[in-house]
Amino acid sequence: MTRKALILLTIILSFLSSAQADSPEEKIAPEKPGWELVFEDTFDNVTVLNPEKWVDAYRPGRAEYSALKSGKPSVFDGQKANYVIENGILKLRVDRDLPKRKDVQTPCVSSIQTSRWTYNPQTGEFGTLDKFTTKYGLFEVRCRMPKGSGLHSAFWLVQKGAFEQEISPDGKRGKIGDGVVEIDIFEMLGRKVDARINDFNVHFTKNGHYEYRFDFDCSKEFHTWGLNWEEGKLTWYLDGKEIYVYEGPTPQCEMLILLGLYHNCRWTGPLDPNLAYPRDFEIDWIRVWKKK
After folding, report:
1. Would you report the helix, strand and coil content of the chain in percent, each value rounded to 5?
2. What percent of the chain has pLDDT above 90?
3. What's the pTM value of the predicted model, to 2 decimals?
4. Backbone angles phi, psi at 159, to 5 degrees
5. Exposed, middle or buried, 11 (CB in 10 Å: 0-12/13-18/19+)?
6. Average pLDDT, the chain
7. Does residue 7 lie within any of the structural domains?
8. Is residue 5 in some structural domain?
9. Residue 2 and residue 263: Cα distance in Å, rounded?
10. Greater confidence, 183 or 271?
């Protein structure tokens, strides 16, 4: 075989190997006896988010309300997500100048969700625009989170509706006894990545906060995080292994999905002035299962 032919063969084999590695067949949902797949996105063969599944902004309804009432919407409210989809991977991205903000130190977020609440200034009424919401189920995401002080990767279930949130349209934070309005399947703080700590939260309950310690760097490889939501019980999973069980008050309403990468949220630690951009929260796939 000539040198030129050998080089050509090597290129062809490399291409075929790469194509096979990125093949959608690798993301076929496994059979789960007793479960039905009710929501899925693998981000294969697309370059933009599916508008039938996702709202590509962070809590846009609150932004509209805040702007009308005070003229000074929160720095996070209503920001359009900055993202790319490459080789079947959704990358929620924070770059040096995107999402748009005053300067690199200004807080921002790249977030997507499966529902939003709306506000009609003419009638003063609130509503919802649902893509996907559900009550109970197994929620799973395969992802990789970025490192960096001031960064925060999140996978939440949030109760739909303007007044069923951790913070109301008027900016008032809820309190214990108000009922469960949010479940944090994970809140991975960039400043804690090296310490290998993940926050689980159930707002607002007395015993709904827990820090889970793991033995790997979640910025190096993809891992699958899951939550089984049942009445009175929440079970967290990591790569299919049960890691924590909460028993207590659970949501009584349907919840939406929120995935986001937050930048300089203050409580996540000071923003590293030497932080390299872009920083990506990479999502391979997300699935929701319901008991048959």
Report:
1. 15, 40, 45
2. 62
3. 0.89
4. -65, 135
5. exposed
6. 88
7. no
8. no
9. 53
10. 183
| Structural domains counted in the chain | 1
The pLDDT tens digits for 241-250 are: 999 999 999 9
Is 139 a domain residue? Answer: yes
pLDDT by residue (tens digit) across 123-177?
Answer: 989 999 999 999 999 999 999 999 999 999 999 999 988 988 888 888 888 888 8
> What separation in angstroms does the CA of 44 have from each of 37, 86, 89, 92?
18, 9, 7, 15
Q: Find out whether 154 and 187 touch, Cβ atoms under 8 Å.
A: yes
CA angle (157 as vertex; 152, 158 as ends), nearest 5: 100
What is the Cα gyration radius of the chain?
A: 20
Q: Domain range for residue 101?
A: 32-291
Q: Are 214 and 193 contacting, i.e. CB atoms less than 8 angstroms apart?
A: no
Identify the helix (H) or strand (E) that includes residue 84.
strand 83-86
In terms of Cβ atoms closer than 10 Å to its own Cβ (0-12, 13-18, 19+), residue 122 is: exposed
Strand boundaries in 107-254, DSSP class E: 108-113, 115-120, 125-130, 137-144, 151-159, 182-189, 197-203, 209-213, 223-230, 233-238, 241-247
Rounded to whole angstroms, the Cα distance separating 30 from 45 reads 20
Q: Specify the pLDDT at position 1.
A: 53
Instruction: Say which residues have a Cβ less than 8 Å from residue 228's Cβ, sequence separation at least 6.
Output: 137, 138, 234, 235, 237
Q: What is the DSSP letter of 190?
A: G
Q: Is the pLDDT of residue 286 over 60?
A: yes
pLDDT tens, 146-155? 999 999 999 9
Task: Tell me the average pLDDT across 212-225.
Answer: 93
In a domain, 10, yes or no: no
CATH of the domain at 205: 2.60.120.200
